[in-house]
Amino acid sequence: MHQDEQGRTTWHESRSRQRRRIDGRVRIAHQRLENQLLSRLRFATPPEVVRWFGATQAQDYLGALWALGLRTARASESSVEAALAEGGVVRMHGFRGTWQFVALEDVPWMLALVGSRVLASAGSHFRARGLDARTLGRACEVFTEALEGNQELTRQEMAAALARRRIRTGGRLSLLLAHAELCGVLCSGARRGKQSTFALLSERAPKARPLAREQALAMLARRYFQSRGPATERDFAWWCGLPLRDVREAIELGKPWLHGESSGGQHYFRVGDAVASRRGPSVHLLPAFDECLIAYKDRSAFIDPSHVRAINAGGGMLKPVLVSDGRVIGTWQRKFEKGRVAVAVKPLRKLDVRERDALAKVAERYARFLDLPLRIVGA
Q1: 375 has which bridge partners?
Q2: Fold match between domain 87-204 and domain 211-271
Q3: Which of 277, 284, 295 is nearest to 28 (CA)?
Q4: CB 283 within 8 Å of CB 355
Q5: Which of 10, 14, 299, 375 could join 342 in a cystine, given CB atoms 3.0 to 4.6 angstroms apart?
């Protein structure tokens, strides 16, 4: 073979490998959209969505409501809040120590897996604020006394209860509350107007019990991969915050449900059959910290490397994103103006006609979710 023929052969092989990698990313992104309940709605209520995922990110409360609304048939912001107020789902610190929505019956076994680990990793923060074991224990006792009898108290009322027992809260209240949640003492109560409240987990979920460790690991693997697969073991480890040895044990225990596949040099797991790729444009307005992005250590199936800084500028913040056919193509934010909502879109590339039409429809759906008239800006 001549040298120029060899060069052409190598070039064609390289292009072929590149196309296979791109095709693999597209297929993975489409399957994730399906399992993330974005391509197809499967559930009628927000608690069903939360149970499917196991836990969903909730530090941005209003964005988290939209994340559930996106995945629930005929949802509105008020209907999602009403479903949460019924008590089947709580908002609390969980995996990686961040705010999440979790079904009440799942809280004990999830905390048994990760609560002590999260607290240990935050030990330096507690020590820096002068929070020793005695103070943390006293705070849990105060919270329990204040909330007994199905009481629900706001953050300010919880601080007042601590102050009456001479436990200083300045700069420490968030840590005291998070510690009590991770110890299984506190969970969220019903919202009081725009304020969150706290309640006793033992009173909100009196029948909930931890699972045996192996059962809990197997359940965690099933919930993660059924809702977020195809995903790798490192994606799973990133999301749940467990060490790789525990993650690998969970995957091994979940083998009766898990299917493995390889793509682009990575090994992925999923639950159930692979779904056929959709033909775009499938457009979505995802809130900040949506599970579609936060659930993966490697987000390249959804985000082009050149766009990462536009989505995640650092500090752990993920912006709300515009997704088309499984790829992030822009960011967006909502703005309220005189009785209507403006959806301000910042595309990362020019949208084609079909994408603009699809964007108009999903923006209108978001406006209906808020029960407000719509104005689209920037598309």
Answers
A1: 342
A2: yes
A3: 277
A4: yes
A5: 375
Q: How far apart are CA 42 and CA 88, in angstroms?
A: 19
Q: Is 90 helix (H, G, I), strand (E, B) or coil?
A: strand
Query: Looking at the domain that runs over 87-204, which CATH code has it been given?
Result: 1.10.10.10
* In the block, residue with structure tokens 């515009």: 322
Strand 99-103 with 89-93, pairing? antiparallel
Q: pLDDT tens for residues 128-157?
A: 999 999 999 999 999 999 999 999 999 999
| pLDDT tens column, 22-79 | 577 889 999 999 999 999 888 999 999 999 999 999 999 999 999 999 999 999 999 9
Length reported for the chain = 379
Give one word for 73, left, alpha or beta, with left for phi > 0 and alpha for psi -120 to 50. beta
Q: Is the distance from CB of 294 to CB of 287 less than 8 angstroms?
A: no
Closest to 362 (Cα-Cα) out of 250, 282, 306: 282
Cβ-Cβ contacts under 8 Å for 216 (sequence gap 6 or more): 109, 110, 112, 113, 210
Closest CA to 345 of 307, 297, 378, 304: 378
Q: What is the CATH architecture of 211-271?
A: Orthogonal Bundle (1.10)
Is pTM, for the whole model, over 0.85? yes
Q: What is the dihedral of CA 160, 138, 96, 106, to 10 degrees?
A: -90
Query: Number of C-alpha atoms within 13 angstroms, CB side, residue 207?
Result: 2
The span from the CA of 165 to the CA of 160, in Å, is 9
* Domain chopping of the chain, boundaries: 87-204, 211-271, 283-377
**Distance between CA atoms of 280 and 39, rounded to whole angstroms?**
11
Tokens for 52? 């499917």
